[in-house]
């Protein structure tokens, strides 16, 4: 049974990475809030399960010890020390995340099932400032003079609650994003993805390198193999929705066809076991700017369409948006101002941090549509140490990433041996 009086003025809907991060940082700032989540943890989420160094950086900003818990739990968080690109022609390029990286150091990234990672994060929201209610779904939103009136449902019982601020972190199908933010699915800026769990795949990289395999029929998009603990792996594929519908692609069929018939990949899957059913979900990409806040609401994570359009990374942007939202909420409370004009600083702050990188990723996504160019760069880089270093830096350094979007870069590459 839910009681209106138990709800605070600040409500977060959804306890994925965005909602948990908002909650953790609000608690750190000593701000009371209510976190509602329709599922009960631990719960699954369709994902590639890759956590980049950015996730660790945000967790460290919350509490150094939390980041250390991850690095000291290799049976849940598989250390990932680099990335393997495979071009459409089959040239392979292995890139350590940091070229000065030594194997005795902690890994800069990890791969962990979202069942585990999200549950781990959810447990970190436990604080005297957070009133958390699971199995509680946001059903409707009404704009009223004092803020928002939201209706939530638990055990088939509906309760209406007034709130000054809704932090909507309820994922890609967010009610608030649609109703308050006016966000609609745009097939040019949306991807479809599917995930399968396998055991027994041959030749997984010993240092947990994730594999991005740019097969011709998946472009713009890729087939992936991300090693998990205990010799298991997350296998999947993602593609722009525009192309999925234009070419009438059945991603599941295409994935199975690759696993069974691709000359290189099928050898590695001989004797491998599919451990769960193959499932799909949408990825709202950040390649188009949206209105992320308004009177009495802030959108975070997938609800705000923040996924990197090249890599498909959405966990770090979701957590970053939660962290930034918490700081803006603090100011809004201090000024008792929850208006669209005041909350707009959230959009500005978030896009200031992410837009430069997102735009470059968007250009890289477009580059992969020219397989010959991609083949050329990968095969050149597999023979050229300097270029390898440059691509390695690309993961940390946005300025370096800019070079890849400059036509002169490719011209120089063509004429340089
Ligand atoms: C196939 C695929 C592969 C991907 N691979 C990667 C990857 O390897 N690395 C990476 O960084 N990102 C990846 N992503 C993106 C990543 O999964 C998302 O960007 C990330 O989960 C966003 O976090 P979130 O908290 O915004 O949303 P979610 O993780 O979706 O969490 C939303 C939460 O809200 C709850 N909820 C929903 N509706 C309601 C409601 N009405 N009321 C209350 N609660 C509600 C849900 O139960 C859920 O717990 C992938 C996505 C897909 C689909």
Summarize the structure.
The chain contains 14 helices and 20 strands.
Question: Which key features would you list for this structure?
Answer:
417 residues, D-Amino Acid Oxidase, Chain A, domain 2, 8-stranded mixed β-sheet, 6-stranded mixed β-sheet, 14 helices, 36% helix, 24% strand, binds flavin-adenine dinucleotide
Itemize the secondary structure elements and their pairings:
Layout (H helix, E strand, L loop, with lengths): L9 E4 L3 H12 L4 E4 L13 E2 L1 H10 L1 H8 L6 E3 L1 E5 L5 E5 L12 E3 L2 H10 L6 E4 L3 E8 L2 E8 L2 E7 L1 E4 L6 H5 L10 E10 L10 E4 L7 E7 L4 E9 H6 L4 H11 L3 H4 L4 E2 L4 E6 L8 E2 L2 E3 L15 H21 L4 H28 L3 H11 L3 H10 L3 H6 L3 H9 L2
Parallel strand pairs: 1-2, 1-12, 2-8, 5-14, 12-20
Antiparallel strand pairs: 3-7, 4-7, 5-6, 9-10, 10-11, 13-16, 13-17, 13-18, 14-15, 15-16, 19-20
Helix pairs in contact: 1-9, 2-3, 9-10
């Amino acid at each position: 049974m839910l009681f209106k009086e138990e709800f605070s003025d600040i409500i977060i809907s959804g306890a994925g990475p965005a909602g948990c991060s908002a909650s953790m940082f609000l608690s750190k700032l000593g701000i009371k809030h209510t976190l509602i989540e329709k599922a009960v943890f631990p719960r699954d989420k369709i994902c590639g399960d890759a956590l980049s160094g950015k996730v660790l950086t945000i967790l460290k900003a919350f509490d150094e010890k939390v980041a250390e818990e991850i690095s000291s739990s290799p049976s849940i968080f598989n250390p990932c020390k680099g990335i393997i690109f495979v071009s459409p022609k089959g040239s392979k390029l292995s890139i350590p995340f940091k070229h000065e990286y030594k194997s005795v150091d902690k890994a800069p990234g990890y791969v962990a099932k979202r069942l585990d990672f999200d549950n781990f994060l959810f447990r970190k929201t436990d604080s005297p400032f957070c009133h958390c209610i699971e199995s509680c779904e946001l059903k409707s939103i009404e704009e009223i003079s004092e803020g928002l009136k939201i209706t939530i449902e638990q055990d088939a019982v509906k309760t209406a609650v007034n709130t000054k601020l809704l932090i909507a972190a309820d994922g890609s199908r967010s009610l608030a994003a649609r109703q308050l933010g006016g966000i609609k699915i745009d097939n040019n800026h949306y991807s479809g993805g599917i995930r399968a769990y396998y055991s027994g795949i041959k030749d997984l990289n010993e240092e947990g390198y994730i594999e991005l395999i740019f097969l011709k029929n998946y472009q713009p998009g890729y087939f992936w193999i991300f090693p998990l603990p205990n010799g298991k792996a997350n296998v999947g594929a993602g593609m722009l929705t525009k192309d999925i519908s234009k070419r009438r692609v059945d991603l599941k069929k295409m994935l199975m066809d690759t696993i069974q018939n691709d000359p290189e990949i099928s050898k590695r899957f001989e004797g491998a076991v599919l451990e769960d059913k193959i499932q799909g979900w949408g990825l709202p990409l950040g390649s188009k700017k949206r209105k992320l806040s308004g009177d009495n609401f802030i959108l975070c994570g997938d609800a705000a369409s923040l996924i990197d359009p090249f890599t498909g990374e959405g966990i770090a942007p979701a957590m970053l948006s939660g962290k930034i939202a918490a700081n803006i909420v603090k100011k809004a409370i201090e000024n008792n101002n929850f208006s669209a004009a005041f909350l707009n600083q959230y959009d500005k702050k978030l896009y200031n941090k992410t837009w430069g990188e997102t735009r470059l990723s968007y250009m890289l996504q477009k580059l992969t549509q020219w397989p010959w160019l991609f083949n050329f760069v990968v095969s050149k880089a597999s023979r050229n140490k300097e270029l390898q270093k440059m691509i390695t830096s690309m993961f940390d350094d946005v300025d370096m990433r800019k070079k890849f979007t400059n036509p002169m870069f490719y011209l120089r590459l063509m004429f340089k041996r």
